[in-house]
TrEMBL record:
Catalysed reactions, semicolon-separated: L-alanine = D-alanine
Protein name: Alanine racemase
Top-level EC class: isomerase
Gene3D superfamilies named in the record: Alanine racemase, Lyase, Ornithine Decarboxylase, Chain A, domain 1
Length: 371
């Protein structure tokens, strides 16, 4: 790729393919693969990612909210799409766009059945979530009888899958808790299937579940962060390739004398006789939040780390380049696969890769590197 001349996010579809194939290699033949493309495909480009995964014949896609699924349908995606966080107000557009809802409590179950009935649906595919310990969304174990009774009262919907979500699959110190979740889910699924009279698909593994709990792959697994190159451990991340590189450019260089300040609130004051700074066209409106300011975060210029100084601005950051031989117009690496990973940069500010990569603003230009 040519050197960056502006702030860009380069997305490598070859890396995506590598990650998909690696994660698929962990599955038994016949186990389905659901790719999570919520939040603009974890801050990348949902339409391009979904199109490529569709070409790779992924079995399912998942989004958080209905409007994300609608955008994919408008982009020509035909792969089944699960809406993980169904809201009552969106039941109509879910059906209108052939999306498949997660029904996780009595309100949503009854609302969706009512809308599906009004629209004269027959066996519309739905997914039922059970809470086994994450305590975010989901019916409880003792709700099985209620859910089954409601479903038996109608022919408008039919359960495609039942699922749950592991709370700490990446933390082997919580293995006992995770195994308890898995056993609880198996018991719920068996009870549900016996009562409903057919066998919906079962799925509970996220990326770390895929890697750490093969016994819980069941009929389908779900991967989000792993597809984008992060395995939640050094061991597994070594097998994956981050698909995105965030790059920018030096807009201006300043020579700062002792006692002079840089940025809002004079957050940086030079204590050295001479400090050289570079201003970069990227800020908290682009996804580099204020937590990276004042020496916590850094970028890479000419192979050397340049710490962020002062407060992060909305559209700019300033970095210390006193010991770096560089000039205006030179490329700057914020994160990439080889220099500094998003995971490493996030850790410098006490956060996680998920938060950093999903924060990259859509005003940042995307460049797709095709296979």
């Amino acid at each position: 790729m040519p050197k960056a001349q502006e702030t860009v996010l380069e997305i490598d579809l070859n890396a995506l393919k590598h990650n998909f194939k690696y994660l698929k290699s962990k599955l038994q033949n016949g186990t389905k693969f659901l790719a999570v493309v919520k939040a603009f495909a974890y801050g990348n480009d949902a339409e391009e990612i979904a199109k490529y995964l569709q070409d790779l014949e992924v079995d399912y896609l998942a989004v958080a909210y209905a409007n994300e699924g609608v955008a994919l349908r408008k982009a020509g995606i035909t792969t089944p799409i699960l809406v993980l966080h169904t809201l009552a107000v969106n039941c109509d557009i879910i059906i209108e766009n052939c999306l498949e809802p997660n029904l996780y409590n009595a309100k949503i179950l009854n609302e969706f059945i009512a809308v599906a009935t009004e629209k004269q649906q027959k066996d519309y595919p739905v997914h039922i979530k059970f809470n086994t310990g994450l305590n975010r969304l989901g019916f409880w174990e003792n709700d099985v009888d209620y859910v089954v009774d409601k479903l038996k009262e109608t022919s408008t919907v039919k359960v495609k899958s039942i699922f749950s979500h592991l709370a700490a699959s990446e933390d082997l110190n919580e293995k006992a808790f995770t195994l308890g979740q898995i056993e609880n889910f198996k018991a719920i699924a068996e009870n549900f299937s016996q009562q409903i009279g057919y066998q919906p698909w079962m799925h509970t593994c996220n990326t770390s579940g895929i890697l750490n709990y093969p016994e819980a792959h069941f009929d389908m697994v779900r991967s989000g962060i792993g597809l984008y190159g992060f395995g939640n451990s050094e061991k597994e991340s070594a097998h994956l390739k981050p698909i995105a590189s965030l790059k920018t450019v030096i807009s201006q260089i300043h020579n700062i004398e002792k006692g002079e300040s840089v940025g809002y609130n004079r957050a940086f004051k030079s204590e050295a006789l001479f400090t050289k700074t570079a201003t970069l066209p990227i800020g908290h409106a682009d996804g580099i939040s204020r937590v990276y300011g004042n020496g916590k975060g850094f970028v890479t210029i000419k192979g050397q780390r340049a710490p962020i100084i002062g407060n992060t601005c909305m559209d700019m950051i300033m970095v210390n380049i006193t010991d770096i031989d560089c000039k205006e117009g030179d490329e700057v690496i914020v994160f990439d696969e080889k220099t500094t990973s998003a995971e490493t940069l996030a850790e410098s500010a006490g956060t996680i890769s998920y938060e950093l990569i999903t924060s990259i603003s859509q005003r940042v230009k995307r460049i797709i590197k095709s296979p």
